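ping. complex inputs:
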Amino acid sequence: MNKQPLEISINGDCYSLAVEPNRTLLELLREDLDLTGAKEGCGEGVCGGCTVLMDGKPVRSCLTLALEASGTHITTVEGLAQKGELDPLQQSFIEHGAVQCGFCTSGMLMAAKGLALNNPHAGNKEIRNAISGHICRCTGYTKIIEAVEAVVDRSLEKR
Amino acid sequence: MKKFKYLIPKTLDEAVSLNQSHEGSAIYVAGGTDVMVKIKSGKLAPDYLISLKHIGVGSQLGVNRETGALHIGGLVTHRTLETSSLIRLQYPIIHDAVQRIGSTQIRNVATIGGNLVNAVPSADGAIPLIALDARVNIYGSAGERTVDLVHFFEGPGQTVMDRGEIVTEIVVPKQPSRTGGAYQKFGRRAAMELPLIGVGVLITLEEGSNRCAKARITLGVAAPTPIRTLSAERYLVGKEITENTLNEAGKLAAEESRVRDSVRGLAWYRREMVEVLVQRMGVKCLQRIKETEAL
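pong. complex structure:
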């Protein structure tokens, strides 16, 4: 079937594309734009690996049609670092050893970023809740929670 | 994934007429969290997907000042309900349910109308709404009609909706004062899990006493559709609400449930959990009534 037009902003860059209606946002990112940070784990919304931000809110890119993202701002893990500086969350993941095999990491980071944008003073419970839709096959959840907590603490100090 | 065409109607009528003109080969999509999974797995194979995101109705959430009824648009997301102070403070039974549906990512896009239309036996969104005597407004080529939510479900994946109809709104009538409600989804994982059992209890007390004026006990995954357990409700009305009477109501609800064995859990266990959770939710109702009165 015919491609349909798509206007979309990804990590601050605007794109005018034509996409197949059955193309998912994840396929568009990975296969067409070579942004391979978001991962396909389960492909049915259960694992969290494909999480990206749509207008600042975490969504599953594997269950989102590219066309559904029309007119929105998408942020992927590639868009977290600013001017060559890692996002505080990324730095904290490194410092806390929150990355093991790395497959879940970009999804975890995007969920954490969504939380930080929405609630900069989130407590342990909110952090756990925010990443509850993610699976880490290495079971390294504790370090991930600590890494996010550290960033939340820092933003508290700044106040 | 199967190929299809993606249509974006701008009004409700346009959506309905698009569906009519592609009779049988079109599917509405709102949040897409269920529809997309079904298309990917081949359970659904539409030639046309009709997006409901831009039809301009169904996104309202608020209380009608004249009637006191709560109006929830069919396209309101679970996340909107979860983060609404109106829902959290005045309808905690709905808050209990929506905060545990899917994950944040799913709740950000999945809609309450979609939850109802999907009609899974667990339908977390439906159980509290049935306890609140909610009605559903449905719109289609024949116009609008209203159905009591308790009569909306006909079986797994089956509702009273005709082809091409859209859930535009859920209306919860004003509840009497001294009403408290609570819902518990009981499962293994905190997110992305269908419950083993879902239990909603809503109790209205008489003025100045602990006697029950109205009771609703609703269950998910206890039958092919969400159900009310009428014998347990009738038992409570007119009685003092105590741990003992709630225990008895729990037993009656468990007897009335039609739970069965599945990969998630066995029937005997589900039955025991109905009994336990009805009692616990009943106690929570009392607590919430007290908390409201203390304000």
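Residues 179-294 of chain B form a domain with the Enolase-like; domain 1 fold (CATH 3.30.390.50).
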